[in-house]
Each structure stands twice: as structure tokens, then as C-alpha cells.
Amino acid sequence: MAVYKNITSRTIISKIMRDLQTTDGNWVFDAIEWMGEALEHIGSSTQLENKGCVLDVKNYRATLPADLYYVNQVAINNSVSPSITNELTELLSKVDSIQLQLQDTASLCEDCDDPTGSLIRELRDLNNRIVVLENIYLSDETGLQPLAYSTTNFPKALHCEGCVNELAKHKESYFIDGGTVKTSFVSGKLCLSYKAFPIDEDGFPMVPDDISFKEALFWYCYKKLLLGGMITHTVNGINYQFADQKWQYYCTQARNAAVFPDIDRYESFLNQWVRMIPNMNRWSTGFENLGTREQLTRSIKY
């Protein structure tokens, strides 16, 4: 069946402690990383969430979001008013400044009851306003212009000042290198649509609310407990080989359950494939009409 909802990984931790009848929680924080590994092994798109953000390009490059897992598409939007662009640039600069202050704990007020409270509240307000401004960029479908991935061996982002290749004609493009996205333009704003692992309010990974995922994560964590010697097979007769076999079984089952479409997705898939004339312009419109049925007009009179 299709998967729609997510649950916090705390539910999986509770399941492990309940099934194993243990009160020892020394492995709980390790289990957070184990579940992240298991979700990557399962590797279904359903367990990821779609996100969008606006990156500030400086000197031909911008840092990718920390939670990025897969890039959907990159675009620019030159139709946004300069006042919004300037406000967004100023807010992003303030956020960077506050994050540096939070990292430099020595400069915070030691006598205050909550030395970071005011900074965190200010950071939250700034991020709320940034989300509003980013939505202006991302919701303007007519102004968004998708960027092609750079195919040249000498992209403009690698050129030096005064390089003769800077005079060459080129179209705007981008490429990703070492955790940064590099562009063919020196500065501006970059609209990024991507997939990320969803997390709860405490930073714990969210897990699809499906029995196959729950069992898969349970057995992955269980075999890690066996591998680390935190439990032994003498407790219940389950050894590492058996636990690994169960993980392999439920990993495949969870992946298949996640990719199983519902009726509306079946219809969208049908409309994408049953066509007489291929639509070669889907990328330029952000794949907006990918699932729209083809309409053929007959002009021949019989």
C-alpha cells in the first residue's frame, strides 16, 4: 500500500525497548544513527519530503542546505522586486551572524538565566520572515527559469578574472561540487527544489508509518546491538545471521510498499506514458503538467 504519514523514530525506540523487555537506554542515541542508515538502505522516495529554499550566490557559488539528500531542480527568478531581494539578503546575513554568536559561547552573558534565549527567539523570527520571502520566489511559476546542469569542461565558475573564456557566449547553468552549487553568474539568488529526510522537533528522523518500515528498522537496530555486544544471542537464541536475514527481508518489503502507487498516481503514470506526441518541454515548466492527459485535435474533415 502507498505510504502517506510519518511517525517519529521515538516510536521505533519504544518498540525496541518493549519487544526486548529492556530498560537500558545506553544505545538510544546510537539507534538514531542506525535508523538513518537503515532508511538510506531502503532508499525509497516516499520516505523523503519535498523542500524548497533560496540560496544566496556569492562569487559564483552557494552552500547547499545541510539536510539536502537529492536535488529536484534548480532555477532563477529575476521577476522578484529588488526590495524583496535586498531584504532577503539582509536577513540571511543576520542569520549567519547570530549562528556565529551561538557558536562563540564565550561571548554570551554568563550571568543571565538564559544566555541564548534572546538570540534563539530572534533567529526564529528571522527564519519565519525568510520563509515568507522564499515563498515569493518559489511560488511565482511564470518567473521561474530552470537552470541547466553545466556540461562544459570549463564552466564560468572556475574562470579567473581577465580569463579570455569569460568573453565566450554561454547560457546560465550550474554544477555541484564539494557541497556547494556553482553557477555561471557571479551573484544573485538561486531557487532550489530538493528532497530531504524529515525530522521532528527534536531533530530525530521521521519514519514512514508503515509496518514494513517499523519491522525493518527494528531488525536493523537489533543486529547492530548484536554486533556491538550490547545483547547476546544467548538471551533469546537470535544470532546475528538470523537478524540480518530478517532485516534483508523487511528492507525489501518496505521499499516495495513505499513505491506502490495509489489510484491518483496510477492515473498520473498513465497520462505520462500513453501519448502520441512526446512532450519535450516538461523540464522548462518544472514538470508542472507531467501528469496531464494528452489532448489531440483532429483537423481533417471526413
What's the arrangement of secondary structure elements?
Elements: E1 6-8, H1 9-20, H2 28-42, E2 49-58, E3 61-63, E4 68-77, H3 82-103, H4 117-139, E5 144-146, E6 148-149, E7 173-177, E8 180-183, E9 187-196, E10 206-208, H5 211-227, H6 240-259, H7 263-273
Parallel strand pairs: 6-7
Antiparallel strand pairs: 1-10, 2-9, 3-8, 4-5, 4-9, 7-8
Helix pairs in contact: 1-5, 2-5, 3-4, 5-6
Largest sheet: 4 strands, antiparallel
How large is the share of residues in beta strands?
A: 15-25%
* Helix and strand element order: EHHEEEHHEEEEEEHHH
Supply the helix-strand structural class.
Answer: alpha+beta
Low-confidence stretches: none
Termini, distance in Å? Answer: 47 Å
Rg over CA atoms, rounded to whole Å, is: 25 Å
Provide a count of the helices: 7
Shape summary:
globular
- The overall pLDDT, averaged over residues, is 85
The strand count comes to 10
Enumerate the strands of the largest sheet in spatial order, edge to edge or round the barrel. Answer: 2-9-4-5
Helical fraction: 25-40%
Give a verbal description of the structure.
The protein is α+β, with helices and mostly antiparallel strands and 302 residues long. It is 40% helix and 18% strand. It contains seven helices and ten strands. Strands 2-9-4-5 form a four-stranded antiparallel sheet, with helices on one face. The protein has a four-stranded mixed sheet with strand order 3-8-7-6, with no helix packed on it. Strand 7 and strand 8 (180-183) form a beta hairpin. Helix 2 (28-42) crosses helix 5, helix 3 packs antiparallel against helix 4 and helix 5 runs antiparallel to helix 6 (240-259). The chain is globular, with a radius of gyration of 25 Å. The two termini are 47 Å apart. The model has no long low-confidence stretch (mean pLDDT 85).
